[in-house]
Amino acid sequence: MEERAPRDRALGSRALAALLPDPAAARPAYRQLARAIGALILDGRIALHVRLPAERELAAALNISRATVTAVYDLLRESGYARSRQGSGTWTALPEGRTPRGITRLLRPRDSAIDLARAAPALPERALADALAEVTPQLAEHAHTPGYHPYGLPELRTAVADRFTRRGLATTPEQILVTSGAQHALTLVLGLLSGPGDRVMVESPSYPNALEAMRRARLRTVPVPVTDTGWDVEIMEATLRQAVPQLAYLIPDFHNPTGCLMPAGERARVLRAAHRSGTWLVVDETLVDLALDVAAPAPLAAHGTPGSGGKVITVGSMSKSYWGGLRIGWLRAPSRLVTELAGQRVATDMGGSVLDQLLALALLAREGALLPPRLDALRAQRAALAAALAAELPGWAWRPPPGGLSLWVDLGEPIASALAERVLDYGVRIEGGAFFAPDPGLFEQRLRIPYTTAPPVLREAVQRLAATLADGLPPCRGDRGPRWIA
Length: 486
Description:
The protein is α/β, with parallel strands linked by helices.
């Protein structure tokens, strides 16, 4: 029986037009537009089973003929990216044999390209082997139990709570929920505390997977800028006061992708403004341990006055400081909310892997031995990347971040997407800055370049970027296959 598409999921003509290339830029226009829409569907920027605009409305929004839009929709149907139902319009679909890039980003690339799309370091084999040896007897003890821990292993909850307390934010285990990574924590929060149409304040640029989770939750993002010099707190205060968003998602610690660190005074102002508007603050601390030039900052919630930090949810993870393969994250929130979120979690996965949580506990206990060498390596790799860029591409500009995993590079002209597409032919995988934008058309002059690989590899990657520019860039086609952002 044919699945009936929900009638309340529709994409407006102006919203779709803003995502599409200029129809006059390439010929035939209908084929380029259809290709762009297909790429947006695979990329998740347009959701599946969403009604596309009526032909006449989209033609007006793009300033093209209705016949051209008819040809676009015909081609989308022929290629499997759309289906039509008489009386209900045209709906997006996934073609047979195609995989959404949300999945392909998580797969190991099949080519040998240098990977600068993922900002995620590997875990030293010796550290993993030692941790496995330590937890094997403990795992045998747990094997005699059912193994379900919707809140997380009590020992791990205690260890995470103790970390918060040592950093200046008194925390009890009852305020901790262990999750399958920071992204899992965010989706639990979105599912419990927001609904379709709710406003959420986000930074611009921001972490693409978080933005994608908000799109899928059908939230309305309200962007506030983050520049090379950081946040404009007056704009944030005005946005919280005027838009009164249900949630605000912030990355104040070595912001992804800019690398900025929010000063303590600004954290206190944001807390006060959110408290006045009744907005839940979701603070992503995934990168907080990767302080390269400064001391690791205290949690944002620690900067509030009594009562002002009551609606703050702090999200953390092992992915960037240890290893993403563990899939261990956590959130800190008021204990009653933690209980509600645990109920939300049971509806999806019952509880996390006991083995992964035991490994996380063992690795956290070795923090003093594991993190300093990692930070030293990141400093050396950051220096190597900066030196290579200065030598090979002296017209590019960036500010050295005080921590984190990447440079946010200004190319001086809006060529990022075209460069990212073309340089794959030269053996480098990278993402243009537009992928970090909550709104279309932004950051085409930016690249995020991680320094998570060895200096010789980084130097070779920069040389290939320079060679690509020297050979010239064709117009960006907008669909270049699987991508992954971490």
